[in-house]
Amino acid sequence: MMTRTLKSLLVGTALLALAACQPATAPDPAPATPVTAPVSPGTAAMYAARPDGDLTVPAIPPSLLTEDKARQIVPYWTDHLVGTIIVDPYATRLYHVRADNTAMRYSVGVGAAGYGFTGEAHTPYQRDWPRWTPTDNMLAENPDHYGPSADGVEGGLENPMGARALYIHNSGGDTYYRIHGTPDPQSIGTASSAGCIRLFNQDIIHLAENTRSMAKVVVLSQAQSGMGTRPPGTAPAPVASTATYDTSDITGSTP
Q1: What's the average model confidence in pLDDT over 94-109?
Q2: 245 alpha-carbon distance from chain centroid
Q3: What is this structure's pTM?
Q4: For residue 195, what pLDDT band results from cuts at 50, 70 and 90?
Q5: Is beta strand 55-57 parallel, antiparallel or unpaired with respect to 50-52?
Q6: Span of the secretion signal (predicted)?
Q7: Of 17, 112, 124, 194, whose CA is between 20 and 30 Å from 27?
Q8: Catalytic annotation, residues
Q9: CB distance 92 to 220 below 8 Å
Q10: CA pair distance 57, 51, nearest whole angstrom
Q11: Cα separation of 209 and 15, whole Å?
C-alpha cells in the first residue's frame, strides 16, 4: 500500500505540473523588435504555412526566426538511447536523440512551473490538435477570463495546446506535464509566467511525427543544464537564463 509520505510526494509533484500548461497571460508591450539577419530559404521553408488536416498552420513571422532558433541536427553526447527526448528548460532547448552522437535540437518556450518537474518519464501517447480545459483552480482564481472556457476548448489554431501534444507519464501516472505546440510563436525561446514546454507548431508536428509511443523523456535540472552539448570529459558550456521567472500568478491547468 502506498505510504502517506509517498502519496503526498506524488500529489505535490502533480500540483507543480498542473501549473505548467496554463496559457500565458498577455505579455507587457514589447520594445521595438531588433532587426535580425534573414534566414536561409531552407529555414524559411521549414516554417512556412502548411496544411494539417482541415487546418492550415500559419507561417512563423520572419522577425521571430533565426538560424540558431530553427530546428537542426547538432552534436550531442549522451548515454540515453536513440529516440529519447531530453528537455533543457534553462537553455530553452529540446533534444531528440539520434545515432552517432547527434540530436535534433528544437527551441522551446518554458514556464516557471516547468522547473517543478525534473527527472525521467515517458510519453505513452500524443494527440493532434488536443482539447484544452481550464482547471477548477483557474476558474476560481479568474472566473471572468476562464469562465467562457469552463467546458473546454476544442483543438484549433487559437487553442493554447497548439497542433500536437505529447503527454508525459511517470511511475505515478500522468504528470499533467505536456510538450506541445502554441498559437503564440513569440514565446518560443523565452520564459513566460506559465506554460509547459512549447514549440513552434511546425516543430511540434515534426517532433510528434518522429516520436514513438513510450519514448523516454528526460527533463534536466538547473545543475544539469547544458549536459550533452560537449564531448565526455569536458565541462558543458555555461547556460545563462535571460528571462525572469515569476510564479506569483501561476494557477495551473490541464489539457
Answers
A1: 98
A2: 15
A3: 0.81
A4: low
A5: antiparallel
A6: 1-26
A7: 17
A8: 180, 196
A9: no
A10: 6
A11: 29
- Local structure of 5: helix, strand or coil: helix
Domains recognised in the chain with CATH numbers: 64-239+250-254 (2.40.440.10)
Asked whether 180 and 164 are in contact (CB, 8 A), the reply is yes
d(CA 136, CA 181): 23
Nearest residue to 106 (alpha-carbon basis) of 9, 216, 18, 180: 180
Alpha-carbon distance 179 to 110, whole Å? 10
Which DSSP state fits 163? S
250 φψ region: left (φ > 0), alpha (ψ -120 to 50), beta (else): beta
pLDDT at 238: 58
Residue 96, beta-bridge partner list: 85, 104
Enumerate the H helices of 19-170 as residue ranges: 41-46, 136-141, 143-146
Geometric angle at alpha carbon 253, from 28 and 107, rounded to 5°? 60
The grid cell for 217 is: 523523456
Other beta carbons within 10 angstroms of residue 77's beta carbon come to 16
